[in-house]
Amino acid sequence: DTIGVSKGRGFEGVVTRWGVTRLVRKSHRGLRKVACIGSWHPARVQFQVPRSGQNGYGHRTEINKKIYRIGKSLKDDPNNAVTENDLTEKAITPMGGFSHYGEVTNEFVMLKGTTPGIRKRLVTLRKSLLPQVSRKAVEKISLKFIDTSSKFGHGRFQTSEEKAKFFGGAVTKKAKTDAKAEDKADN
Fold this sequence. Notes:
- The protein is of the alpha+beta class.
- The protein has helices at 14-18, 135-138, 160-167, 169-186; strands spanning 2-5, 11-12, 53-54, 59-62, 67-71, 108-111, 124-125.
- It has a three-stranded antiparallel sheet with strand order 4-1-7, with no helix packed on it. Strands 2-3 form a two-stranded antiparallel sheet. A two-stranded antiparallel ribbon has the order 5-6.
- The relative contact order is 0.18.
- The mean pLDDT is 91.
């Protein structure tokens, strides 16, 4: 199970916060509202009535998470994304780093699915409270491939070496710049 604080979205109206249907276009004094917030009696607004207020940034527990891999740090294992089927020497960090996070240099835990909250926010992992007996829960996991292509845009290459090989590489670029420098020196 994962325990954390969900992503905060600030002060939101009823349409966004509770999914209430908007009123008709010609309605008086706005349309992103609750049409009726209750009967005359009881003479209070009941707690079930959707109201505007803080959305998100709440304590959440997600159950039955599956751990795919517990990885070593980059210092201990520089090729920590290698699998049995994919022997390409690469680290777990995708090309260009994870968006709004950067590079993974310490130990890591790879989970199936999502975790509550934004990047870099603390997440608590605990052993599942329910006994995991289903066939899906107790099956042995063997990762075949870990995608390390860029997470910005349409990632195409798994490593910078692969990209350099496809585009001609840094070696040819260096040779071209050296040749240009020699030409300038001759003139």
